[in-house]
Design a protein that fits this description.
The chain contains seven helices and eleven strands. By secondary structure, it is of the alpha/beta class. Helix 4 crosses helix 6.
Length: 247
């Protein structure tokens, strides 16, 4: 896609994607961005099948059920390099993974994290939900209930992982953990706050709009991964196009 300026950013919307496949894709894109095989940042927007992830602070001690219990439900527990403690991802949660060269974007880490929170705050505000920040625990909150999470990693100046907004997510698995390592806090969703189901596509569209506004990106939508040369080899050697196997 020639002619993109330094503030243009690819946007790739994906189907339901297994967490390891999405993590592998992020690693591939981070490496490509560091080598300047990709001249522009790229944002992945997707959902995951059920999975628990542990951040750099660990968190297995905050899992309140046994591994055997989760194995029977076919829910994996995966250690990752993002910040934070234990959390849950599942269908109905909108996940955004920006692969961003922070220096090139003119962003300090603290401002970038605050920006991810702002994107979620503005998104839920479009549905008349008033969420706020907690200066101690990052993410967005409705009083003592967490509505959206932030967890990033930065490798040689390129940020990955990102934020996750609870839209129509089942909240039951959060009862099996101390979310983010916190005791006596709750988790909520847009659907729970509004007492109705929320259509995901308008939330995706709102998130993209606010992401472009907050970070002053010109989002360039990738209609299909094969449109972009740097993804061609990746698709051919990975499960990229079949990563939504789980039903």
């Amino acid at each position: 896609m020639p002619g993109l300026d330094c503030k243009s950013c690819y946007c790739l919307e994906l189907p339901m994607m297994e967490y390891p496949a999405a993590l592998d894709l992020q690693h591939y894109l981070v490496s490509a961005r560091q080598r300047r095989a990709i001249e522009n940042d790229i944002i992945l927007i997707l959902e995951h099948p059920p999975v628990f992830t542990l951040g750099r602070r660990g968190g297995i001690e905050n899992l309140k059920v046994s591994r055997a219990f989760l194995k029977r439900l076919n829910i994996p527990v995966i250690q990752v390099e993002r910040g934070g403690d234990i959390t849950f991802h599942g269908p109905g949660q909108l996940v955004v993974y920006p692969i961003v060269d922070l220096a090139e974007a003119g962003l300090k880490i603290i401002d970038y994290v605050t920006g991810l929170e702002e994107i979620m705050i503005r998104t839920v505000s479009d549905w008349k939900i008033s969420a706020g920040r907690n200066s101690v625990n990052r993410g967005i909150w409705m009083a003592d209930k967490k509505l959206g999470s932030v967890g990033i990693s930065v490798k040689r100046g390129v940020s990955f992982h990102g934020c996750a907004l609870n839209v129509n997510l089942s909240l039951k698995p959060f009862h099996w953990i101390h979310p983010c390592g916190l005791v006596d806090v709750g988790v909520t969703s847009m659907a729970q706050e509004l007492s109705k189901s929320i259509i995901m596509k308008p939330v995706r569209d709102a998130m993209k709009h606010h992401l472009a506004s907050v970070f002053e990106f010109n989002l360039v939508k990738i209609e299909h991964p094969r449109m972009v040369p740097f993804l061609e080899n990746y698709i051919d050697r990975n499960i990229f196009m079949t990563s939504s196997r789980r039903t």
